[in-house]
Structures are given as structure tokens and as C-alpha cells.
Amino acid sequence: MNENFRDYLKRLEATGDLATIEQPVDIRYVSALVSQAKTALLFKNVIGYDMPLLTGIIGTKERATKSLGCESYHELADLLAKGAANPIAPKIVESGHDRAIVLTGDEVDLFKLPVPVCSVSDGGPTITGGVVIAKDPEFGTNCGIYRFMLKEKTLSGIDIVTPNNLRFFAERALQRGEPLPISISLGVHPSDFMCAAYRAPLGLDELTIMGGLRGAPVELGTCVTSDLPYLADAEIVLEAEILPTGWTWPEGRFGEFTRLMGGLHWNPLVKVKAITMKAKPIYYSLHMPWEVIWLGAPQRYAALRQSLKAASIVVHDINVTVGGCGYWHAIISIKKQPGEGKNALLAALSVMDIKHVTIVDSDIDVFDPVDVEWAVATRVQADKDVVILSNARAKPLDPSLAVMKLGGVPTTAKMGIDATMPEDIPRERFDRIQYAYVKDVNVDDYLAGHADTKRKTVVETDLEALKAEIVKLLTEKPTYYLGVVQAFPDYEFSTVVKALGELHEEEQLWQDEVGRTCLRDSKYAAKPPA
């Protein structure tokens, strides 16, 4: 799809997914109100500010799905993968779309933007949901989503503790003793947001993935204070630079996608040199944590499928779980060949910041936690099937990590559980209970009065003839007990049972290795273990 930010808002409004509040609202109440709302909220009259405040536009699974015009949530990952596989280069438009307001020098004032404080323990008003574009002399353009805690009229922090491409660019600029110019596009379409948050390999421009997803080049404007591009459709653009201060300034706390309060981070400073806006801009504040979780998971779906495909794993289904915050946990069902459970684990654990992976067979429903736990309970031997990797790349937002030293880069342990059926165990051990005749009868019929007809009883039956027929059947092949009963549908169950009982008394019956009834002197008869 190729719609803009305002088009998406119109769609939300048309379907009742966006409510507008016209009366004056104190900004300090915004986060509480959106947490209670069943829709996205547009506050038209924020006390003390001259522009409306929008929040919650991708705050549910349904709105996230709708944002890309999909019917199913899992289509989002397919669209993202399609965009990554079919990149389209962006194009520059002369002056962006409706850059009616250009503020530079002393006119720049971040405090005029309606930036809320969301959580009780937040360190200050924090800009969220901006698409950040930066360039490196050697590695080209990079996009990402970062947050900025306001400190002064023209000064903020930027949270780039996590090892990523922007941090790499900033470290290289710091080594040169230079600021790193960035543009921050606020109020953009959710598809742009999702692509910007995708962890693309260094050198792959996320702007081309945006174009691939949209099926058309992303339009870019050019900043007035640098040659950097910005998303031309953005409501507000901040032109800034990451100062060469290093990771030395305190920032935070902030409510994270983990549904927890993050700790105090040490980060660089950002100097804002210009603000450009549409004529009547809308300030969009991404509401934590759900607006990150619901668009974060599809990025991992897409990356997991790509990694598993490269490992020649046939994937049946994937669940990047909500309990894992849409970032850290994946349950993956595969159509397994010998040894592929472990191969799938290694491929999946290499993806982004995935921390824990469970691999199951294709008969397990990855969206049913009871089914997954049952697979772990019945198919796992911990000494063989649990894989632990130490010192892997981590997100510092993981509260279980040890406290880092100033400027440190976090690492984590990753765990994989191979909950597929072991190759060295007989398959019949994993045969599920299957109730007989479930397709032939319906309890509602019996509750409504249905009665079955009687069949041949022992009194009416030549048991010797029936026994001979059973022996003939078992001479041909072993048959489960109920299969023997089903082979003689004209007889009462009790009659066939009596015939089988007499054959057992005569020591003619035995069982094979998987429990089927067979003749005692046949080649199929099970032998006791040595």
C-alpha cells in the first residue's frame, strides 16, 4: 500500500478506531487517558500548546494490522519480507510536502512541542516514534527509531545504548571528534516506522525497504541545515546532530517495550538546529509499550523466516510471543528432518535480539501455550535438548542483565529448547490419543434422544466361526484391538470381546512391538527386552 500519514488517520476515523477530544486537556493526563481508551486519541486542544497531540494509532494488534491494510496480523511480516526482498530506491522531492513552517536559530524551541511525560518514573518529556536518518562516509545511509529526552530548548539526549548501526555511526564520528548530523521525522505512516525499526545489515538502506513495502519510491526532502534527507510526508522534522560528547550524560528512566521501567542510561547529547513543519502539524507521541510491541514482532517474524530459510529449514509456523514483549521469545514449528531441531535453534538465535527460542514439530500449535508446554514436557531431555549460548549481543533494556560500566556494551545468554520428537525414540511413543468413532457420532444427537440398534449377541453367534474369522484377519496383519472390533460391525462389542478372550485363553494371541494384536506364533510377535 502507498498511503500517507493523514490518509491512515482518515481510515482510523472512518472505522471508529480514532476518537477526537475537542475540549481543553492537560497534557499530564494524556498517558493515563490513552491507557484507558479503546481507540487512538487525537487531542485537539492541549493546554499550553498550539498543536494537537495524537497517540495510540498502532496500540492494538487490530490497529497495527489495519495500519498496513492487512486482514491478518501475520501478513505484516510477509509485507516486510517482501519489501526487504524487493527494495526500491527513494527519490528526493524539492521541498518536501508542505514545509510551511521553518524554525532555525533562536526560533528553535523543543518545549513548544506537546511532548508528554508518560510514566511516573520518567526522567522527563521524551520524543518517541521519530524516524532517524543518518549518514556515514563509508557505510551510507541508515534509518532507525530512537527516543529523545528533552533537556533544554535545543538540547536532548538520544538513547543509543544498544549496539546498532546508528551507535556505530556515532562512535565513528566521536573518534573523528565530529558531530553526527541526523534528521528526525515525526508523524509518519506506520509502515515507515516498521521498516525503520527493522535491523537491516550494515550498508542496506532501510529507506529502500520502505519503498519495497509500499511498491513505490519513498519521497524525501532535504534538510535546510545539512544535506541529510527526511521523510517528506512527516508532520514535523527535527534537524539535529549527535554531539561528540560520548556516552557520558544521564538519560531516563523511561517506560520500555518490556512493560517495565528502564534504568538510567548514559548517552550522548543531541543539538537541534532546526524544526520544519507542515502548516497545521499534528504531533504524534508513540505510547509505550504496545505501539512498539505490535509493530516490533513482525520485524522478527520476517528476519526469522529469512534466517531459517538460509539454514534450509522448512518452517510450518512462528509465534513471536506477546509474553516475550514481541522481541525476545519465539516458538517455531518445523517440518523436521533428522538433526534440524538444533540447526533451527542456531539459526533462530542468531536473529536480532531474540533471547529464547523453542522449536517444535509441525503437529504443535505454536499459539497454544499448553500445547507448547506439553511438547517441552514430553519431548525434551534437558542435557541433550537445551542449548545455552553465552556472551551474545543484547539489548540493555533487559532488566536481568548485570549493571554495565560506563560506555559498556551489553551481552546476554541465549537459550534454545529443541522440543521436537527425538530421532532415536520410537515414533509410536508420540502417538496422540485419538478417540474412536468421533466422526461417526455426535453427542447432541444422543442428548436429543437418538438410540443405537442392537447387533448380533453371543447367544446368536457361532463363536468358533467368529474366532476363525479373527484368526484369518490377524494372519494377514497385526491389528489394533479396536480395529479387530471394527472389522466385525455386525456383532455386539461384547461378542467380539468374548471371542478374543477365548483366543487368548487358547494362547493364540499376542501383541507386536507397537501394541497391535497379532498371532502368538507369527513373525510380528514382540519379544521381551534382553
In short:
Helices cover 28% and strands 25% of the residues.
Secondary-structure topology with pairs:
Elements: H1 5-14, E1 18-25, H2 30-36, E2 40-46, E3 53-55, H3 61-67, H4 75-85, E4 91-92, E5 101-104, E6 126-136, E7 140-152, E8 155-157, H5 165-176, E9 180-186, H6 190-197, H7 206-214, E10 219-222, E11 229-231, E12 236-242, E13 249-251, E14 265-267, E15 269-277, E16 283-284, H8 290-310, E17 315-320, E18 329-334, H9 340-349, E19 356-361, H10 369-379, H11 382-385, E20 386-393, E21 411-419, H12 443-447, H13 463-476, H14 481-486, H15 493-505, E22 509-511, E23 517-519
Parallel strand pairs: 1-2, 3-16, 4-10, 18-19, 19-21
Antiparallel strand pairs: 2-3, 5-15, 6-7, 6-9, 7-8, 8-15, 9-12, 10-11, 12-15, 13-14, 17-18, 20-21, 22-23
Label this structure with key terms.
15 helices; elongated; 3 domains; 5-stranded mixed beta sheet; about 525 residues; alpha+beta; UbiD C-terminal domain-like; Arc Repressor Mutant, subunit A; Pnp Oxidase, Chain A
Strand order of the largest sheet: 6-7-8-15-12-9
Name the CATH architecture of the largest domain.
Answer: Roll
* Beta-strand percent range: 15-25%
Give me the count of strands. Answer: 23
* Class per helix and strand makeup: alpha+beta
In total, the number of domains comes to 3
| Cα-based radius of gyration, to the nearest Å | 32 Å
Count up the helices.
Answer: 15
Report the CATH topology name of the largest domain: Pnp Oxidase, Chain A
**Major sheet characteristics:** 6 strands, antiparallel, barrel
Name the CATH superfamily assignment of the largest domain. Electron Transport, Fmn-binding Protein, Chain A
Helix content: 25-40%
Q: Please mark out the parts with pLDDT under 50 across 5 or more consecutive residues, or reply none.
A: none
